[in-house]
Design a protein that fits this description.
Layout: E1 4-5, E2 14-24, E3 30-40, E4 49-52, E5 57-63, E6 66-67, E7 71-72, E8 76-79, E9 86-94, E10 104-108, E11 111-115, E12 135-142, E13 147-150, E14 153-158, E15 161-170, E16 177-180, E17 183-190, E18 196-203, H1 212-229, E19 237-243, E20 250-251, E21 256-260, H2 273-288, E22 297-298, H3 304-322, H4 325-344, E23 356-357, H5 366-383, H6 385-399, E24 403-404, H7 406-417, H8 426-429, E25 435-443, E26 446-454, E27 469-476, E28 482-491, E29 495-500, E30 508-511, E31 520-522, H9 527-536, H10 540-561, H11 567-578, H12 584-590, H13 596-605, H14 612-629, H15 633-640, H16 651-671, H17 674-682, H18 686-698, H19 703-713, H20 717-729, H21 736-744, H22 754-765, H23 768-771, H24 777-789, H25 794-800, H26 812-826, H27 833-843
Parallel strand pairs: 2-12, 18-19, 19-21, 22-24, 25-31
Antiparallel strand pairs: 1-23, 2-3, 3-9, 4-8, 5-6, 5-9, 7-8, 10-11, 12-15, 13-16, 14-15, 17-18, 20-21, 25-26, 26-29, 27-28, 27-30
Helix pairs in contact: 1-2, 2-3, 3-4, 3-5, 4-5, 5-6, 6-7, 9-10, 9-11, 10-11, 12-16, 14-16, 15-16, 16-18, 17-18, 19-20, 20-21, 20-22, 21-22, 24-26, 25-27, 26-27
The chain binds diaminopropanoic acid and zinc ion.
């Protein structure tokens, strides 16, 4: 397959004034009739009339009423088009029941649904399936389904049909259709200018009790976007539909968002606090796309971060406002490091705005989304809050209705602030995680910080010029008081110094506060300094970071030198855990430990080949030592932070549960699971039940709970996903592959459901010591399943290949085992374009 390049962009030769679609539904033979009013695009030089189309059976085609015979390929069709406005009509037949790729129109549990981003609409009918071609759509659905939905506002409906009209011109990737036996949970919202909006969450019968939280989250999102960005909703109706079989989390189709049911359905009995927070954020994310994505869309898929980076940034702001900003920031940085830094430091590294791709589905990545959001945050830090919102107002004013680019986006900021952003643009074009080396000097009341930036080579990019970096810094005096409040230093050179004068003594620096830039900070620091920052830093992120660094240094010494658990860490973290003036959620996060993957990357960066088993052993040893160190404190915390009264998934209650369950983890290491069993038996919400289940599995006392959990929840597929994944994640490393293998034989395992596949095989891939077990059993099992899944669902297969992206870190024996599996995938006949591209890039 040939790559597509950003530099080759040309506009389509035709504009569209209107699209009329009629669907006659039938599981195996749905007919789609299209009537599209085209006219020549005055801005285009290439007038080839090419329409994308894949897996379509063309029944008839006509231009201006004259039947024609277009030239067909497996990518689409070409026809001779007049150099004047004309009407295209076509009828095609498609087979939703056979569509296991879950792109285009497909069936999920007997219901029809669609997923068109990025390039699924071409599996529905012939069309210029590119985001810069926008048009108003009118849709008629004919079928026997109880509920038949499409985008926009409802039109006529009656026995066997429903009509829809979306007045807002949109690209085809935002098209959606849903039809089935659905029930709605209704709601209502009045916009600030008085528009009455009808809201619905549509679910399968039986799930109607799990919609209330999502509905509240939607209303909060609508209000928040008005309050913070001045953005109002623009239709009379907003529908959300929950679908069980879905490749991604959710999709922002205009007026008809479609959600993976795991990202919208929630109840205290079946969802954890983490699930609630995530659902709230995803509902907000998809809603916010109405302005950042739909009203202003992307010119081409290279600009994906234009809508995704900005919308992730917006949903993070929303969560920070509704819950705790420090906790959200810490959680986001943990995720950024786990997914994006990992990607940026391996063979799949790519710029936030890629310059080429083979299959766009492979670029819905942590780099485009999460690093893309970090760039928005840096921009806001650099220009300041007021200028940021002024720039956003200009963006909405200038580009409403456009398919825009990153150049457009940056120009808005330049025009609104008078700032030159050409150096900032390197953050979009240059891949890789920059390193920031810091040294300092103090004399005569003057403190100097010297920074040196560098970015390692990434595929196709050897040299990277310096970027502009906002470095938020504060200084603490010897008694722990802040002597310099947070100040943003703007670094533009490869090496640069900043001075602070008038200091009475040498300060302790707190650098990269709130994680002001997505970089790896390299600074020689002592345990004493880290413990000091953990105790005194006023910046919650850096306070947490100091504890994390202390834990990490100790773990690295344990792994590399066989050191004992570091008592400085144990004392410092115990003091934090004990400090009741601190937010319980923060304390629970502070007590978290660096992940196995994080430690592996740190060892590798430091010149040591990581041994996954040794990493696992060190973490176990440290956890055990910590449980002993806190043996008096843990039961106190556990009792003190039990939540009384009705379950609420809010920040206060979930923070308390999080700390109590962290304490339960410590207790379990000393009591062998007795307390966890009591909690399991008494639990009346999933947060408590799952935490206890997890402790029991860890303690090797899970057998009864595994059976009981399954009996209790076998009717609930989302809870059973947790049952699958938790058993794999909590298995001992030499058992992980066997446990996953056995679960794939379970009657409830199906590879057709992406959630279940990820719960089982994804859990294997995310358990480093088990996945990388020296036997190679983990590699082989995952490969077997990826090869089986690829012909059914290339998108999910390709995504999960990233399990192998870190392979070059490991020893020769493991690399050989992995290379064998990668080659086995590549040798599979008819391997999808998606998987071929991913494995080729990983193999290098
Ligand atoms: N555009 C979707 C989202 O990120 C993904 N299909 O919201
Ligand atoms: Zn998105």
């Amino acid at each position: 397959p040939q790559p597509i390049y950003l530099k080759d962009y040309t506009p389509f030769g035709y504009l569209i004034d209107s699209v009329d679609l009629t669907f006659t539904l039938s599981p195996e033979a749905t007919r789609v009739r299209s009537r599209i009013a085209f006219r020549p695009n005055p801005d285009a030089s290439d007038t080839t009339f090419f329409l994308h189309g894949e897996n379509l059976k063309l029944i008839s085609a006509a231009i201006d009423g004259q039947s024609i015979t277009p030239k067909l390929t497996d990518q689409g069709l070409t026809a001779d088009a007049p150099n004047a406005p004309f009407v295209w009509e076509a009828e095609v037949e498609i087979n939703p029941a056979a569509n296991t790729a879950l792109e285009g129109l497909y069936m999920s549990n007997g219901m029809y649904c669609t997923q068109c981003e990025a390039e699924g609409f071409r599996k529905i009918t012939y069309y210029p399936d590119r985001p810069d071609v926008m048009a108003p759509f009118t849709v008629r659905i004919e079928g026997a389904e109880k509920v038949m939905l499409s985008n926009g506002n409802p039109g006529a409906s009656g026995e066997g049909f429903a009509e829809w009209h979306d007045p807002w011109p949109k690209p085809a990737y935002l098209f959606a259709l849903v039809a089935g036996d659905l029930i709605n949970h209704p709601g209502q919202f009045t916009t600030k200018s008085g528009r009455e909006v009808e809201l619905n969450i549509w679910v399968r019968p039986g799930d109607e009790g799990k919609c209330a939280f999502g509905m509240e989250a939607l209303k909060h999102s609508m209000k928040w976007d008005e309050d913070v960005y001045g953005r109002e909703y623009d239709l009379d109706l907003f529908n959300i539909v929950a679908v069980d079989d879905f490749n991604m989390g959710a999709m922002e189709n205009k007026g008809l968002n479609i959600f993976n049911s795991s990202c919208v359905l929630a109840s205290p009995e079946t969802s954890t606090d983490g699930n609630f927070e995530r659902i709230e954020a995803i509902i907000a994310h998809e809603y916010f796309h109405n302005w950042t994505g739909n009203r202003i869309t992307c010119r081409d898929w290279f600009q994906l971060c234009l809508k995704e980076g900005l919308t992730v940034y917006r949903d993070a702001q929303f969560t920070s406002d509704l819950r705790s900003a420090p906790v959200k920031r810490i959680e986001d940085v943990i995720a950024l490091r786990a997914r994006q830094f990992r990607e940026d430091n391996g063979p799949l590294a790519h710029p936030v705005r890629p310059e080429s791709f083979v299959e766009i589905n492979n670029f819905y990545t942590a780099t485009v989304y999460e690093k893309g959001a970090e760039l928005i945050g840096m921009l806001k830090t650099l220009v300041g809050d007021a200028a940021y919102y002024k720039s956003l107002d200009l963006y909405f004013e200038r580009h409403d209705g456009d398919a825009a680019t990153i150049e457009d986006w940056l120009k808005v900021f330049e025009d609104a602030t008078g700032r030159d952003l050409s150096q900032f643009k390197r953050w979009y074009s240059d891949a890789g995680t920059p390193r920031l080396k810091v040294s300092d000097d103090y004399s005569d009341g003057t403190y100097t910080l010297t920074f040196r930036q560098s970015t390692p080579p990434t595929p196709g990019q050897d040299e990277k010029p310096p970027r502009v970096i906002p470095i938020a810094v504060g200084l603490l005096g010897p008694n722990g008081d802040e002597v310099q409040a947070t100040q943003v230093l703007e670094m533009t050179e490869e090496e640069q110094s900043f001075t602070f004068t008038g200091l009475a003594a040498k300060p302790t620096p707190s650098i990269l506060r709130d994680f002001s830039a997505p970089m790896i900070l390299q600074r020689d620091s002592s345990n004493a300094e880290r413990a000091f920052l953990l105790a005194h830093d006023t910046d919650p992120f850096n306070k947490w970071e100091a504890g994390r660094a202390l834990a990490k240094d100790g773990l690295i010494a344990m792994i590399r030198e066989g050191a004992s658990p570091d008592s400085a860490y144990l004392d410092a973290i115990t003091a934090v855990a004990r400090d009741d003036t601190l937010d319980p959620a923060f304390r629970a996060l502070a007590m978290g430990l660096p992940s196995q993957d994080d430690l592996a990357q740190t060892l590798f960066d430091g010149g040591t080949t990581p041994n996954p088993q040794a990493i696992w052993d060190a973490l176990e040893t440290l956890r055990q030592a910590r449980a002993q160190h806190m043996q008096d404190l843990a039961p106190r915390l556990y009792a003190q932070y039990q939540v009384e009264g009705d379950y609420q998934p809010d920040a206060a209650q979930s923070g308390a549960r999080s700390l109590a369950n962290t304490a339960l983890g410590l207790i379990t290491r000393l009591d062998g699971g007795a307390q966890a069993q009591r909690q399991y038996d008494a639990a009346d919400n999933m947060t408590q039940q799952l935490a206890a289940f997890c402790c029991l599995l860890q303690a090797g006392k899970g057998e009864a709970a595994i059976a009981a959990f399954y009996d209790q929840w076998q009717h609930d597929r989302l809870v059973i996903d947790k049952w699958f994944s938790m058993q794999v994640v909590q298995a001992a490393p030499d058992q992980t592959a066997a446990v996953a293998d056995a679960l794939t034989q379970h009657a409830d395992f199906t590879m057709k459901n992406p959630n279940r596949f990820r719960a089982t095989l994804g859990a294997l891939a995310m358990s480093p010591a088990g996945f990388h077990h020296a036997s190679g059993a983990g590699y082989e099992l995952l490969t077997d399943w990826l090869i089986q899944l690829d012909p059914l669902n290339p998108q999910t297969t390709a995504r999960m290949c990233s399990a192998f992206e870190t392979w070059k870190r490991y020893d020769a024996a493991r690399q050989d085992l992995i290379a064998t599996q990668l080659d086995r995938i590549l040798a599979t006949p008819n391997l999808s374009r998606d998987t071929t591209e991913m494995v080729t890039r990983i193999r290098g």
